[in-house]
Amino acid sequence: MEQATIQQLGDELYEALVACKTITPFSSRYPDMTIEDAYYVQQRMIARRLEKGEKIIGKKIGVTSKPVMNLLGVNQPDFGYLTDGMVYNEGESIDASTLIQPKAEGEIAFLLKKDIQGPGVTAADVIAATEGVMACFEIVDSRIENWKIKIQDTVSDNASCGVFVLGDRLVDIANLDLALCGMVMEKNGDIVVTGAGAASMGHPVNAIVWLANTLGSLGIALKAGDIVLSGAMGAMVDCAKGDNLRISIGGIGGCSVRFV
């Protein structure tokens, strides 16, 4: 894909983000678009955000479950960037009008205390580099109309990241089996999703290993202080103005968010 086209598509996504509107899928307009092309488009979209003063504070991992991989026709996850313009703290409200077609996922967020860079990163390396974990909501959002996405669309669109909400409790993972940590999500007081850490590549640490080694092949390190969202522990849930959501993750704690 030509550089001019990549820049045009990245700009189109950024403008859709700012205007809170959707666009037609790139995969239907450019059937020969590769995943590599899509990551270049993602970089252009993120560059536009950084030009406006946002700073990168971490990464998110998506497409970590087999059902979603099968849906998108791929056999690996994807990643996107987190900026300081996306983060909310426990209990803060989100203005629903700033999002387009949001869906909530319960996740485990990692806070790193050491740099890690692939290739060759192992699960032991990730554990040693982790300061702690938190319960987290990722509010995924798509600038692609009606969520009609293929892998090229979601990668281009910063892995369909909207905003994220961090819990207020940081927990050492030394005595936790994150694969077995159960998650319960409530929406307006009703249980709507249950899940477990194993939903993310069998173990959330596996997702971080994949990310560190994938970024390493691109010459990019995960840095001390980075926040990394390790992937959904269960199904996505639609959310809208007036909704109150809460997750509880065994051994880690909870996180809540409301939409106004």
Key phrases:
eight-stranded mixed β-sheet; 260 residues; Fumarylacetoacetate hydrolase, domain 2; 27% helix; 7 helices; alpha+beta; globular
Report the top-level CATH class.
Alpha Beta
Overall geometry: globular
The name of the CATH architecture is Alpha-Beta Complex
Given helix and strand content, the structural type is: alpha+beta
- Low-confidence segments, given as residue ranges, are none
* Mean pLDDT over the full residue set: 96
The N- and C-terminal alpha carbons lie at a distance of 41 Å
Which value, in Å, is the CA radius of gyration? 17 Å
Quaternary state of this entry equals single chain
Give me the CATH fold name.
Answer: Fumarylacetoacetate hydrolase, domain 2
Q: H/E element string?
A: HHHEHEEEEHEHEEEHEEEE
Number of strands: 13
User: What does the main sheet amount to?
Assistant: 8 strands, mixed
Helix content: 25-40%
Tell me the number of helical segments per DSSP (H or I, 4 or more residues long). Answer: 7
- Number of folding domains? 1
Classified in CATH, the superfamily is Fumarylacetoacetase-like, C-terminal domain
Strand content: 25-35%
